[in-house]
Design brief:
The strands form two sheets. The chain has a nine-stranded mixed sheet, sandwiched between helices. It is α/β, with parallel strands linked by helices and about 350 residues long. The chain has helices at about 5-15, 20-30, 30-35, 40-45, 55-60, 60-75, 90, 125-140, 150-160, 185-195, 210-220, 235-245, 265-270, 280-285, 290-300, 305-315, 320-325, 330-345, and strands at about 80, 100-105, 115, 145, 165-170, 195-200, 225, 250, 275, 320, 345-350, 355. It has three domains: about 5-75; about 115-285, 3-Layer(aba) Sandwich (Rossmann fold); about 290-355, Arc Repressor Mutant, subunit A (Orthogonal Bundle). Helices cover about 45% and strands about 15% of the residues. The chain contains 18 helices and twelve strands.
Length: about 350
């Protein structure tokens, strides 16, 4: 990305009147450079924006972009465009994907992820179910995506962090704005070990209207969605609607039919959501036959990180050259580790330089 193009994309992200569709229109019809050669009035005319309230935002776009870039450089905020190779592949598939994502921490594109969502006012029973499912997801190497909100969001994400798992928090404001403030410690833990993500520029206050749009990113970053507990008019159901439009599987845990906190989630089952009685009901759908292998590798404390990496890289019968490429470990070191794993009964060497994991471990 050229320096001018960075400024142009940041400028567009600062304008609340420009979303994914208008960004695409600009890119495909004019190009960024040509668009920013126009006056604010002509830019608005091109985008068919008639509101007088929009004028200041168009006039200040480039100025705001410079401010955003300074803040990003100061705090360490990174950003990725939809055209970039590192943009989350699952998110790119959805309707209206954000044209720019700001983030703190690190994206992990190599693991499966599940959105864990529910009411902000969970029952004690549902809290324990949430913790149990979230711990199990970690044990299978599955990441958890949520919104750092009160209730089920933060319960799931705190459980993941406490168990050394990976989680993404999708914010309704800027990635540097902690909301709610009660989750300050959790925010910093996720920032260090997972990822804080937003389509809104740094410093953006989390306005009420931002959250429904934010929910499309929560489901979009995920391979499936789990609804733990939701009343009939819960905001959780907005995420479910997005998930269904994005062709993500939606799971829910059935609850007491007399409890209003389960009324929305129970209705999802009536409407075709999958029932999750155990974490494995979801895990096996996501990971297939590899689920047991991944869990046992993760839980075997006698294995080094390199050994775990190698075992996870072996799918059915895998050639030594593919293992070198997947693991990034030198051939000499890889052969040494494979020999040790073979002695310990984890792998078997096959003719032609192939290896396989024994008995799903």
């Amino acid at each position: 990305m050229m320096p001018d193009e960075i400024i142009y994309v940041l400028a567009l992200s600062s304008n609340s009147y420009i979303g994914p569709k208008k960004y695409t229109t600009i890119k495909n019809s004019l190009g960024l450079k040509e668009f920013f050669s126009l006056s604010a009035k002509d830019q608005m005319e091109f985008l068919k924006i008639r509101s007088a309230k929009a004028v200041p935002e168009f006039e200040r776009m480039l100025f705001e972009a410079e401010k955003i870039l300074k803040v990003c450089n100061k705090i360490g905020i990174k950003f990725v465009r939809i055209e970039d190779e590192f943009y989350p592949p699952a998110l790119k598939e959805i309707e209206d994907p954000p044209f720019l994502l700001y983030y703190l921490g690190n994206f992990n594109h190599s693991i499966k992820k599940i959105a864990v969502i529910g009411t902000r006012h969970p029952s004690k029973e549902a809290i324990e179910i949430n913790k149990y499912f979230s711990r199990e997801f970690v044990s299978y190497g599955i990441g958890v995506v949520s919104g750092l909100a009160r209730g089920h969001d933060s319960i799931a994400q705190r459980t993941v962090v406490e168990n050394d798992g990976y989680t993404i928090a999708v914010m309704g404001g800027g990635v540097d704005v902690i909301y709610p403030l009660e989750n300050k410690n959790l925010y910093y833990q996720i920032r260090e070990k997972g990822c804080i993500v937003s389509e809104y520029p740094p410093g953006t206050y989390p306005l009420k209207q931002n959250f429904p749009l934010r929910n499309r990113i929560i489901s979009g970053l995920s391979d499936a969605v789990l609804v733990l507990q939701a009343p009939e008019k819960s905001g959780t159901l907005i995420t479910v609607e997005y998930a269904q439009r994005q062709h993500r599987d939606v799971y829910t845990i059935p609850g007491n039919t007399l409890d209003p906190l389960y009324r929305g989630s129970n209705k999802l089952i009536q409407n075709g959501a999958k029932i999750a009685l155990t974490p494995e009901d979801i895990v096996f759908d996501l990971l297939g036959k590899d689920a047991k292998k991944i869990r046992n590798i993760k839980n075997d404390l006698s294995l080094s990180d390199e050994e775990k990496l190698i075992l996870k890289s072996i799918s059915k019968e895998t050639h030594i050259d593919d293992l070198i490429e997947k693991s990034g470990i030198s051939q000499q070191n890889l052969l040494r580790i494979l020999t040790l794993l073979e002695i310990r009964g984890y792998v078997e060497q096959l003719p032609g330089g192939f290896y396989r994991v024994l008995n799903e471990i």
